[in-house]
Amino acid sequence: MRSLVVVESMFGNTRAVADAVADGLAAAGPVTVVTVGDAPSAPEEDVALLVVGAPTHAFSLSRPNTRRAAEEQGAEHSTTGLREWLATLPPAGSPDRSAATFSTRIPKKFVPGSAAKAAARRLSRLRYRLAAPPEDYFVLDTAGPLRAGEIARARAWGQRLAEAVNCRAEASRGRTAEGDA
């Protein structure tokens, strides 16, 4: 199984989560992690799982104005975000194309919104099959650091994603083989 992880990160925390998710996925096959600015316009045909991650800004995916505000707080300059990349992503070419989403955010009670949930809605509209519910990882402050244990949790989530996608692929192959008999 080949996976592609596309990540938007401003302070490095979301990238650290992406790398941990990729570590978890690696046992199932090759994984490529790219920043959203370097992401292909669409995953290649042999990518079975697309994972996208971004920081939560103003209860959702970042926008140009929220990225500028983050830059004023010391974040890396970013001209494009996951919101813009998803807006140009073509629909999934296959009903077997899976996706998963994650985000980083501050763990405040009763604060709605998540970049992961917003990305999941967009990917569902593009006919990607969600391999898992959107996942949030927590930072202690805007610039981080990540809360203790989040990297291990992200690695374990990557392993569960790989298992879920592989199980679905095996079941699909079994149904195809039965249909051919």
From TrEMBL:
InterPro entries, per this entry? Answer: Flavoprotein-like_sf (IPR029039)
* Protein's organism: Cryptosporangium minutisporangium
Q: What is this protein called?
A: Flavodoxin family protein
Gene3D superfamilies (alphabetical): 3.40.50.360
